[in-house]
Write a sequence for this structure.
């Protein structure tokens, strides 16, 4: 097969592909064989019709099927041979069979442009030290033992940290109730009776409310105002003083039992108290490793993203957006009542989502060229297995669908993104610094966070594989 690649303006690439007559005849035989298996002609049993008769009887259909399969199969081969990552194909044109039996066609693609990129080789990512100390292990064990805890009423002192306050709560804004549909009001702003509130020193909205109650005695009430950011509450309520009126009904103290073999048998029958402690330590070490892995990726991506192109050609962005709206958004909103769906906002958010994905993949493609990171059959086979696991198609139908340009493009983008991300994580330098005391795992009463807390929502999305169209 001969392939000529041309770089065109506006993110476009043209491939002129010539398939030798020998390959054309081989595929033509396969097409005729497929027709033979299904054909029914008088005087012949099914599957026993001579190929020459099949070819003469179904010549037009065979020609159409052969043309389609030549373009589909050899486009994928040409992409692999020229080692570029298409975003989408524009059109196929000038397809024709020559007198010597060769097949020629031209296909235009949108592809990632070559863009300037920062010197990530000399960039250093700062990460916190995360030692797994005995205190951290004990804190994590305590969080598990809370399901076996007892609660005792406290009557001889005021409310303090780590108590549970039993309260009645109401809220207002400018002396009026919060003027939003109930489903849009966060739980911590809704009027509630006999609510149990754990008094902690974290920075969550609930903890901010709870800290204002410290020092109260049962039967006392308190009014105070708090202001929340747009990330914590809906926009109409953000950056405005919301008034809380709270009556403290009772104080409850949680009594956590000691770790004994008897309790461990209820949690993990194969462990003793001593081995369970070791088991929790190993889990925390794995969590710490995952936490730092994702935190490093988050910082690398934040460093690179300002260099991602934003001037994406409208045809690419619009087609990408429409593809997501048609294939994936319906499944996300099917459980949402119609009166809660803002169609205009949904389209805008989907377009932003797609713009970020395309921009990020431009960075991925550029780094792959700088580092000579290429894909092999093993990389694509892993993508095929992923596609196969998500598809209900038969093995033969799944393989054919996987080879179709659209699915194949996505497979190549996913495979390359995975390899480049792993390369960056291994090769960008890192420097560890002591973790600030305010977040020190030795003093925290909470177990170690999972990897999702060390990564921004945008980075989390960008690291995810692009989903395959399954229909």
């Amino acid at each position: 097969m001969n392939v000529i690649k041309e770089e065109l303006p506006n993110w476009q690439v043209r491939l002129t592909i010539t398939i030798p007559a020998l390959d054309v005849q081989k595929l033509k035989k396969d097409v005729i064989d497929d027709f033979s298996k299904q054909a029914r002609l008088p005087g012949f049993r099914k599957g026993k019709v001579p190929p020459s008769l099949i070819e003469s009887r179904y010549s037009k259909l065979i020609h159409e099927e052969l043309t389609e399969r030549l373009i589909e199969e050899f486009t994928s081969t040409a992409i692999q041979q020229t080692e570029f990552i298409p975003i989408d194909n524009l059109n196929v044109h000038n397809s024709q069979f020559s007198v010597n039996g060769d097949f020629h066609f031209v296909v235009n693609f949108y592809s990632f442009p070559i863009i300037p990129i920062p010197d990530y080789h000399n960039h250093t990512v700062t990460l916190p030290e995360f030692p797994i100390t005995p205190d951290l292990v004990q804190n994590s064990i305590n969080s598990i033992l809370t399901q076996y805890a007892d609660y005792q009423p406290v009557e001889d002192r005021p409310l303090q940290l780590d108590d549970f306050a039993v309260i009645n709560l109401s809220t207002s804004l400018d002396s009026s109730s919060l003027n939003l549909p109930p489903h849009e009001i966060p739980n911590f702003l809704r009027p509630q009776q006999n609510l149990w509130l754990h008094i902690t020193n974290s920075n969550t909205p609930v903890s901010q409310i709870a800290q204002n109650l410290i020092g109260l005695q049962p039967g006392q009430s308190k009014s105070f105002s708090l202001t929340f950011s747009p990330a914590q509450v809906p926009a109409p309520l953000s950056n405005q003083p919301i008034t809380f009126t709270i009556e403290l009904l009772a104080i409850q103290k949680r009594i956590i039992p000691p770790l004994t073999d008897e309790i461990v048998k209820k949690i993990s029958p194969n462990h003793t108290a001593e081995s369970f402690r070791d088991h929790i330590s190993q889990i925390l070490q794995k969590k710490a490793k995952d936490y730092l892995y994702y935190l490093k990726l988050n910082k690398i991506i934040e460093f690179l993203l300002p260099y991602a192109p934003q001037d994406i050609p409208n045809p690419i962005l619009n087609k990408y957006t429409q593809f997501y709206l048609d294939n994936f958004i319906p499944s996300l909103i099917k459980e949402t009542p119609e009166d809660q769906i803002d169609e205009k906002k949904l389209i805008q958010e989907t377009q932003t989502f797609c713009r970020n994905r395309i921009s990020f993949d431009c960075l991925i493609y550029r780094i792959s060229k700088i580092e000579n990171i290429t894909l092999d059959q093993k990389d694509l086979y892993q993508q095929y297995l992923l596609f196969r696991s998500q598809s209900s198609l038969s093995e033969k139908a799944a393989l054919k669908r996987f080879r179709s340009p659209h699915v194949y493009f996505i497979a190549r983008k996913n495979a390359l993104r995975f390899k480049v991300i792993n390369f960056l994580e291994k090769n960008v330098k890192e420097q560890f610094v002591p973790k600030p005391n305010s977040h020190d795992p030795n003093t925290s009463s909470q177990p170690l966070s999972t990897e999702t807390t060390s990564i921004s929502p945008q980075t989390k999305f960008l690291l995810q594989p692009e989903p395959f169209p399954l229909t």
